[in-house]
Amino acid sequence: MDCNWEQNQNNTHQLMCIDVDNQQKPVHIATKLQANNSASCILHFNKLALNLFDGGVAVVNEPSSDACDVDPVYFRPFPERRIIDGAEEVLLKCEWRGDSNTLEVKQCLDVGTKGNEVAVAFRMNGKEESLLPSVNRMLENGQVVEAKELKPFSPPLYFRAN
After folding, report:
1. What is the pLDDT of residues 75-134, one digit of tens each?
2. Which domain of life is it from (predicted)?
3. How far is CA 67 from CA 6, 45, 62, in A?
4. Which of 11, 15, 48, 135 is the most exposed place for a label (fewest CB within 10 A)?
């Protein structure tokens, strides 16, 4: 990952990180307060931000509250395939489509069979609603599962065949 400290007002600096492969907006990982020419710092580490990257999570050792820097931040992509309880699960390619100010629909491609596109959620006025119970009732050859153990907030979706 590409991470840089950006200087702000009042001797504060923000550590902003970007996933070089996905090129999404920079994510705010940490803030430090450091007076000019001082070796002392107060650092706030934003642990929740590690889950804000598309396609995986950021990984770093959590720094102490008096650290002036953070260890290198790495990107860990979600596994394309995994075995859970003896069954293979395949990572789905999903994206939000629509107008972010009104209605967006989360579409996943190749759900169960190649070319099968399925709406798995919708977001209206900032509120997200899952369609997974309905989707899984309609699928005949498996189910879509959320991998909350990989990322608790906005987890990746996998297809598990029957």
Report:
1. 999 999 999 999 999 999 999 999 877 899 999 999 999 999 999 999 998 899 999 999
2. Bacteria
3. 16, 10, 10
4. 48
137 and 154 share a domain?
yes
Residues spanned by the domain of 29:
2-77
Same domain (yes/no): 35, 96: no
Check whether residue 96 and residue 141 sit in a common domain.
yes
Please tell me the distance from the alpha carbon of residue 127 to that of residue 132, in angstroms, as a whole number.
16
DSSP-based three-state secondary structure for 80: coil
Statement: the pTM of the whole predicted model exceeds 0.85: no
For residue 41, CA distances in Å to 7, 33, 60 come to: 14, 6, 19
Name the strand (E) or helix (H) holding 136. helix 132-138
